[in-house]
Amino acid sequence: MAIECVVLGAGQEVGKSCAVVSINGKKIMFDCGMHMGYVDHRRYPDFSLISKSADFNNVLSCIVITHFHLDHIGALPYFTEVCGYNGPIYMTYPTKALAPLMLDDYRKVMVGRGEEQQFTNENILNCMKKVTAVDIKQTVQVDKDLQIRAYYAGHVLGAAMFYASVGDAAMVYTGDYNMTPDRHLGAAQIDRLHLDLLITESTYGKTIRDSKYAREREFLKAVHNCVANGGKVLIPTFALGRAQELCILLDDYWERMNLKVPIYFSSGLTIQANLYYKVLISWTSQKVKDTYATRNAFNFKNVQSFERSLIHAPGPCVLFATPGMLSGGFSLEVFKHWAPCESNLITLPGYCVAGTVGHKLSDKTTKVDVDKDTQIDVRCKIHRLSFSPHTDEKGIMDLVKFLSPKNVILVHGEITNMSYLKGRIQSELGIQCYYPSNNETVSFPTTHFVKADASATFIRSSLTPNFKFLKDEATDMAPVQVCDERVTQGILVMEKGQKVKILHQDELLTMVGTKQTEVEFAYCFPFNLCSLKVPVTDDNSLIHILNTKLSDEVAEFGVQDCMDVIQVNSFHLAVCKNGNCLYRINSHGSTMGSDCVFFCCNWSISDKILAWRVISLIKNMSSSVESVFG
Amino acid sequence: MKLTSLSQSGGYNLPPCHIISLCGFNILFDCPLDLSSLTIFSPISAQTFTRPSSNLHPEMLDKTSLIAAEPYYKTVQTLHLWNVSLIDVVLISNPMGMLGLPFLTRTEGFSAKIYATEVTAKLGQLLMEDLVAMHMEYKQFYGPKETSFFQFLKWEELEALPPALKEVILGKDGTELGGWLPLYSSADVKDCLQKVQTLKYAEEACYNGTLIIKALSSGLEIGSCNWSLQSPKRNISYISSSVFSSGTAMDFDFHALIQSDVLIYSDFASWNGVPCVHSENSSSIVPLDPSAKSDNACMSELLDFDESSEETEKLNFICSCSMDSVNAGGSVLIPIGRIGIILQLLELFALHIESSDIKVPIFIISSVAEELLSYTTILPEWLCKDRQEKLYSGKPVFAHEELIKEKKIHVFPAVHSHELLMMWQEPCIVFSPHWSLRLGSVVHLLQRWRGDPNSLLVLEEGVNTDLALLPFKPIAMKVLECSFVSGLMSEKVPQLLKMLQPKLILLPDYTKAFFNPLNDSLPCLFYTENETLSLPSSKNLLELNIATDLASRLTLSKLKSEELTISRLQGKLILDQGKHYLVAESQKKMTPLVHWGKVDLQSLLLALEKIGVKGSMEKVNIEDGCVLHVFEPNKALIQVEETKTVIGSDDEGLASLISDAVHSLLNGV
Ligand SMILES: [Zn+2]
Ligand SMILES: [Zn+2]
């Protein structure tokens, strides 16, 4: 019973996320992404490592896609339509609805750049037909043994973390997630699970972020300043995700400030995407969700579509143009025209993949080669969006601590962040942590429980319920869990050719066909009545007084069911009037005077500690009196 | 496990109500209201009648017989016999199963956990809010001082009522008077909703660590569900009204209900009248022999009847009848309450109007219509495949959003609103509650159009039409009664049950004649309303998961006489997600739990000698044993009887040594 994980992509890098995990023999592919920074074979994961003979349908139990970003889904049409994978594919409803838009947008960019087309639009549509959509928390039985379940991940609309279990072994693959809510999405949320493995992204593994509201204000201020001075704002984004988040922000700000400057979307795609967002509004944050009945927050009031002729139109405007990171297409075209003008503004995300124009702008260069023939003078202002839909270091640590898996694998990040984070996870949380590079394999044994049939008597005989509340103080991602812990004793029985049984001891005797032979202890000893310092009228009151005194020292005492005996568990004590009592060991000389009585006790082995303690307590009472009275 | 059926009436508008006891928890399935009984009241805009002091012909039912008072609402009477604090879990299968819930949640001592799907909770909330709003209108009409009819109901008055009304009030067996209650308030509704934990389809909710509860699509209505309960003792499936394929809701998800220990089948919405006729000729309706066919063949046979296309046909028929009326200058009034039906009708009407020359407006009048309609546009995950395909291809899942924008459909909260009067034109098509024809705008419109022979009223079959229309008589208006798919067809049930392969099926007693002949292939038990059916504990053994580290530490010993290997087991027993786990605990020295066998005195002496304990045997026969005296290292005594050995000593260490020696001579663990 083991887990074996091959990282085919996003190992010590960001891009082409793809992890193939084999849990107790079932192989699952988590994400099937592409790398935006490459145009050769390196853009896709090396699928040949899954199966040399390309027999993917028999090797893989299923594919799970976490969200619609290309670095998580970009290679999927290639894998299904070109490599021929035909098996089940799971993703959330929004991912299934929005992924084709993303993929086709990217395909067009590729074609526009004159690259060889990796898949056609038809390929995309055929690929999506093979997808089974799932809802958050819906438990899907992939086959008899494999179960998967999606959890809300924030990040982008429909992003999910996926739980998978086979037998007693279980794991979670996070994809990209965000532990704090943003303008339109809620924070990631997951149950407390027993996990053998957590595979988590670590994009911002070494960053702690403060309030994002200050950063949002910065962005709005930069945009407002620019348009107030008659400048043009270019926001290169992909059609989905960031575009809607920023647009909610701007639309709301425009309303409040009563601004009339036009906001444009470059492609019908983004406008179309908004329609999807409207229908899928229940996947956003509660606040946005509640707007459905009055005015759906994705019904943007101030947004219009952009005509190419408007590039050179005078006057200020804000333009959302695809693709993001200025990786080509229309956004790059507009950039060429607008970048040389000082009054204009370009906003870029905090992270741009290496190889894109957006990445080149990172350095404070004034001249940028957009392609091999064109160099652009960059004089416009550049605003870096410092809010990101990824979790920060604290979020990752909180999630790892909350889930407390047996092992952690870090993916989707840079190696320095990963090694730093691994150090924290191992030293602070004591959890084994790995960050394999691409095509490297990590494996370890999994949880396994021996299955046995327990008798109802055994379960009942277990001690009274002892409820324990489990709550994590650091994060409150999941509701309080109640767990019932009992200390229990029983007997395991193995009979040839039968399942292992767990029985109560009485049941074993019946099974063996015999009766119990009791082994008891007994002891009869004298006691000086004066030690009680209270008048004793008869044996019943003596027993009562003794019991009360003992209850000060031993918690089990004090409750009396019977007048003339003390009975605690198997321990039994009574006044002994039999002068020839067999158990008066070493006490035959003592006489039974008016102030002396004998206590006869017996007990079984399970109460031996209790019994000897009580006997010594009683003897001490008696002897202390003797020493006073000489 | 026990099952008590509190109400098995069935039907879309009145789902059945059951309580089961499982693992010590009482679980209530649905909490409906019988709204069809509202028909005993007189609607408000009918002239107020003073009830004649003595009705000379109580058998004669006319509009004056109806009760002119603020209506009371009929709940499941026998549910009130339960102490609400004893209910642990409430499961709501569909919006109609929720309408009585505020009565329960506002009761002192109610502390149960309520589960419903997100959509059922929302639709239920809207239906209840609408009910409260419509009732308020009624109340305003009578004023606050009007004393309730039920509050001061005298037996003689009851006796004087026409039998038809009496039966509604008292039920068939005359016991249901106590089930009538004044309506809850909107605060009660709000409070009730706060106590509901909402679920997605196939989400696993764990109650108390013991029960894993899952809601699975039933196909009846958007968001409505069947239930799967997994407990350490039994896995139970609960099937309420289900529809294999619908034009709006997600398909009936029966795969997840396969192989349960007990299947409670309570979908008999479309059962009435059918059962016994068929049982005489059972061979014709039970053609299947599952062994002869693959599962897939069974399944496709089960699904070959396309309910949704038949439904579409019916809906188209309603549309074309409506268009006939409109063409003749009459209006159409549709008080049907089913959300799925309304949504489909709106789309079909738009098509019919589009292809006709007459442009007739559609009005939807209800206090919650606007919210309800916009809510239906944001729940694609809960819809049937065709609608989901619309999402993927970027089209609206329902057409009404566009139609409202295009001003083909007009939505108003109330019939008296100024905006409505501005827009109003006749003929028109109006959707308006309530189907009982006693509450809501439908009453006003029915008053307006009842004399027009060109107008059309569309009702759902199953309501007592005579009684419902009584206050509006004489009626010149046409009345179209339609039945819609409300559950599985009887013919399909045995086939479905066989495919689900439950170990035991619980069915209502009135289906006995139908299912008894099938008992060989379908293990059935029958339950009777208001009687408790107890099932003996089926599994005496529960699965226990033993942690590997604990298992590896076990010391196994073989019993000579038997083919048995035994071992002591000690750990922490944990119940988590409905499973028992035994995990290792910090190890303590374990004292033997149990001994059996005989102590042979000679062997005992030898064993004692080996550990340096010396003694002498004294064959004193006290009762039926012997005594062995020990004198080294200290004085002690061992008394050996047939089934008991007593060690007498004042020396703890010595007693312990002796007990070890005794232990070695006995079988024990
Ligand atoms: Zn992402
Ligand atoms: Zn990513």
Automatic annotation (TrEMBL), chain A:
Q: Which domain of life is it from?
A: Eukaryota
Enumerate the Pfam families for this protein: Beta-Casp, Lactamase_B_6, RMMBL
Q: Name one GO biological process term.
A: snRNA processing
Q: Which GO terms describe its cellular component?
A: nucleus
Q: What's the main place this protein lives?
A: nucleus
- Quote one Gene Ontology molecular function term: RNA endonuclease activity
Q: Which InterPro entries match?
A: Beta_Casp, INTS11-like_MBL-fold, MBL, Metallo-B-lactamas, RibonucZ/Hydroxyglut_hydro, RMMBL
The Metallo-beta-lactamase domain covers 15-223
Q: Which SMART domains match?
A: Beta-Casp (SM01027), Lactamase_B (SM00849)
According to its UniProt record, where is this protein located? Nucleus
- Boundaries of every Beta-Casp domain copy: 243-361
Keyword set, alphabetical order: Hydrolase, Nucleus
PANTHER family registered for this protein in UniProt: CLEAVAGE AND POLYADENYLATION SPECIFICITY FACTOR FAMILY MEMBER, INTEGRATOR COMPLEX SUBUNIT 11
Q: Which family does it belong to?
A: Belongs to the metallo-beta-lactamase superfamily. RNA-metabolizing metallo-beta-lactamase-like family. INTS11 subfamily.
- Name of the molecule in the record: Cleavage and polyadenylation specificity factor subunit 3-II
Q: What species is given as this protein's source?
A: Tagetes erecta
TrEMBL record, chain B:
Q: Give the domain of life.
A: Eukaryota
Q: Pfam families, per this entry? A: Beta-Casp, Lactamase_B_6
Primary location recorded for the protein, binned into one broad class: cytoplasm
Q: Can you give the residue ranges of the Beta-Casp domain?
A: 342-470
- Tell me if Lipid metabolism is a UniProt keyword of this record: no
**GO BP:** snRNA 3'-end processing
Listed InterPro entries = Beta_Casp, Integrator_9su, Metallo-B-lactamas, RibonucZ/Hydroxyglut_hydro
Q: Which UniProt keywords apply?
A: Cytoplasm, Nucleus
Location in or out of the cell:
Cytoplasm; Nucleus
Spell out the SMART domains in the cross-references. Answer: Beta-Casp
- Cellular component terms per the entry's GO annotation: cytoplasm; integrator complex
Q: Which family does it belong to?
A: Belongs to the metallo-beta-lactamase superfamily. RNA-metabolizing metallo-beta-lactamase-like family. INTS9 subfamily.
Under what name is this protein listed? Beta-Casp domain-containing protein
- Species of the source: Tagetes erecta
